[in-house]
Amino acid sequence: MIVEQMRWDLSQLVEIDDPDYISERLTAAVRASEEFRDKHRGKVPDFNAKQVLEMLEESDKWALEFEGPFMYAYLKYFADMTTDVAKRLHSNAQNATMLSQQNLAFMELELGQLLKKNPEIINDPVLSEYKHKLERLKRQIPYMLSEEQEQLAIQKDKNGIDAWSQIQSDWLATREFEIEVDGETKTMPYGEIIGLYEHPNRDLRKRAHEVVYSKLGEDEILWASAVRSVSSDHNDMTKLRKWPTPMTQSLIANDVDEAAIQALMNTIEKNVGVFQKYLRLKAKAMGLEKLGNWDEIAPLPSAPDKKYSWDEARKMVVESYTEFDEESGTWMDEMFEQRHLDGEVRKGKTSGAFCSTWFVGKSAYILQSYNGILGDVFTMAHELGHALHAYLGTRAQKPSNYEIGSCIAETGSIFGTLLLVEKLLTTGETKEEKLAVLSTVLDDFGQAAFQVSARVFFETAMYEAIEKNIFLSGEKISELWVEARDKVYGDAIDWLPVMKWWWTMKLHFYIPNYRYYNYPYVYAQLFVYAMYRLYKEQGKVFVPNLKALLAAGSSKSPRELAAEIGFDITTEEFWQKGIDQFDVFIKEFEDTL
Ligand SMILES: [Zn+2]
Question: Domain range holding 56?
Answer without folding.
Answer: 3-144
